[in-house]
Amino acid sequence: MSGEVQAAAVLGGFSESQQTEPRRGPERGRRFGLGSWLLPVYAVIAFVFLMIPIAYTFVFSFNDSVKSNIAWRGFTFDKWLNVCNVEGGAVCQAFANSVVIGLVATVIATTLGTMIAIALVRYRFRARSVISLLLFLPMATPEVVLGAGLAAQFLAVGVPKDMTTIILAHTMFCISFVVVTVKARVASLDPALEEAGRDLYGSPAQVFWRVTFPLLLPGIVAAALLSFALSFDDFIITNFNSGSVSTFPKYVYISASRGIPAEANVIASAVFLFAIVLVIGAQVSRAARAKRLAKLG
Amino acid sequence: MAFAAFSTAEAPTEQAPRKKSRIALFLLLPGIAYLVLFFLTPLVSLLLTSLQAPLEFGDIGQYQYAFNWQNYVDVMTTYWPHIVRSFGYALAATVFALLFSYPLAYFIGVKARRWPLLQSLMLVLVIAPFFISFLLRTLAWKQILSDESFVITSLKALSLLGPDAHFTGTPFAVIFGLTYNFIPFMTLPLYTTLERLDLRYLEAGSDLYANPFTVFRKVTLPLSMPGIVAGTLLTFIPAAGDYVNASRDFLGGPDTQMMGNVIEANFLVLLNYPAAAALSIILMAAILVLVGIYVKRSGTEDLL
Fold first, then answer.
1. Distance (Å) from the C-alpha of residue A84 to the closest C-alpha of chain B?
2. C-alpha atoms less than 13 angstroms from C-alpha of B200 in its C-beta half-sphere
3. pLDDT: is B21 or B32 the higher one?
4. Domain membership flag for residue A100
5. Chain B residues in contact with A230 (beta carbon < 8 A)
6. Which member of A64, A68, A147, B230 lies 3.0 to 4.6 Å from B189 by CB, making a disulfide possible if both were Cys?
7. Closest CA to A231 of A154, A145, A163
């Protein structure tokens, strides 16, 4: 849905809506504003509010805590340097599981979803509305229902829950998000470019891999990043289909009652920093590119 | 916009000759088969499980297929407070998220239009909470707002809170957590709509001597309806099914348990699969009905 797609756009460093030129009509905005300073001040307060738990998690990753990480006991780099030393590396094992699950689910979901997106935009077929509904429903279903449904099915068929069942579950809920994200990109693709490829005697495979695929790549990358993010942070569906396998969110949930070690904060903070650098880097380079293009034009 | 991504009215870019339908089938089949296998069939499994009856002389967690409608009556009578709470909390969180997000989205989408880089950086800030674990950010709030925390003790010192007042474990805390966690889902679609808002309509309104409030009510608000509908759905649906915020180890208490909590407990702890399945079916059916009515009433069917 659009929130997720927008998130994907931001993640992918390109945003459909921002490609339109900002309208520069006569600027009389002040007349309909709520006061020219009220909104900026509100925005700053809102952003501070949004950042509070992030800052808290980050700060407490440096806490010199023993076992539970609730009271501040002094600053240390220890937890960052020895992340895997706690509880026999349980946090790191959970993190590694989450990464593997995220990667495999992302590859499968991105492949299947991209194929569907291309078919939906490029081909006419019956049952189109049924397929659209089938793609929309997983996004409109609460996660607890998706999780319980899959768990009921695995139970009925007698499949034991392990890494595979988690990957199967994650792939399922990622496909629809991939379709929406990639579809926007396919729809904005100029068919003339592929025609040119065919005119130059490119085989269908050549045209696809040399023309279509590179043009779709930003959309596919955005979809893959979104899939990975959704999978990596999923707890509810995982909880129903993981058996004894631990993932990072599941580890946090289970240890919440007896206190989370600061090492969990270290991992979450590191993931946060990595993601934020990636996204801001993509945004800045996109803005720089837009500026260069504007100069050329 | 939100669901228009799946609009059926869209014309294919090319005429499709017969030969091409085989390519379409090849492209669609794997993904669609996957969804049938791992989305549709599980829903059927869930429905069948919800009608199961305990196996005679069976162990805990052993059931057989039956048409035991009584399961639905049982869960409704046992868990009606959880059902009411789920939808009440989700509704409150949706309203708060909308009130929080609208001015923010308006600022990013309209006021900051002239600075595209600032706009994108602010969007990154909006989705930044997504980058830190959902569970850890909820736990962070729990600790920030716990009884011994700086915030609560200072409020008590200032007599803004009674000496015996708690925040965590109350419905307010759960609604607060739900609101915080789903704010980006509200802000992003609102931003998408407001970013495309044509300011000339607002000018036209004020040229016709409408005061700023009337312009907002008669022009801006109706034009941002697609974003409001998408945002409220994106917030309400996951909030109604959430069980992390309401969990006792997070922001909730014994009296704040939602449907998700009892579905989890019945499925994973009590091994009462039929009860968990019946509750899931009720949750899903209620959401589909509510969403259907809402979308119809708000006149945005074409979004679906």
1. 18
2. 4
3. B32
4. yes
5. none
6. B230
7. A163
Burial class (CB in 10 A: 0-12, 13-18, 19+), B59: exposed
Q: What is the CATH number of the domain that holds B153?
A: 1.10.3720.10
Q: Is residue A245 part of a domain?
A: yes
Cα Rg of chain A (Å, integer): 23
| Residue A110 belongs to domain with CATH number | 1.10.3720.10
Pairwise CB contact (< 8 Å): B139 & A113: no
Q: How far apart are CA B109 and CA B106, in angstroms?
A: 5
Burial label, B216 (beta-carbon count in 10 A; 0-12, 13-18, 19+): middle
B192, part of any domain: yes
Do B261 and B182 meet the contact criterion of CB atoms below 8 Å apart? Answer: no
The C-alpha atoms of residue B28 and residue B7 are separated, in whole angstroms, by: 17
Q: In whole angstroms, give the CA distance from residue B194 to residue A23.
A: 13
Distance of CA B123 to the CA centre of its chain: 20
Q: Tell me the per-residue pLDDT of A25-84, one tens digit each, with 9 for 90 and over.
A: 444 444 444 567 888 999 999 999 999 999 999 998 888 877 777 777 778 877 788 878
Q: Which residues contact A21 (CB under 8 A, 6 or more apart)?
A: none
**Cα nearest neighbour of B27 on chain A:** A115
Residue A289 belongs to a domain: yes
Flag whether A70 is in a domain: yes
Q: B31 and A118 in contact (C-beta within 8 Å)?
A: no
In a domain, B213, yes or no: yes
Cβ–Cβ of B6/A132 closer than 8 Å? yes
Task: Round the CA-based radius of gyration of chain B to a whole number and report it.
Answer: 24
pLDDT digits (tens, 9 = 90+) for A199-239: 999 888 899 899 999 999 988 998 999 999 999 999 999 99
Across the interface, do A272 and B128 touch by the CB < 8 Å criterion? Answer: yes
Average pLDDT over residues B159-186: 89
Taking residue A149's Cβ as centre, other Cβ atoms within 10 Å add up to 31
Whether pLDDT at B80 is above 50: yes
What range does the domain containing A70 cover? 2-18+31-296
Residue B162 C-alpha, separation from nearest chain A C-alpha, in angstroms: 24
CA dist A246 and A162 (Å) reads 9
Q: Which bin fits B295, alpha (ψ -120 to 50), beta or left (φ > 0)?
A: alpha
**Beta-bridge partners for B53:** B64
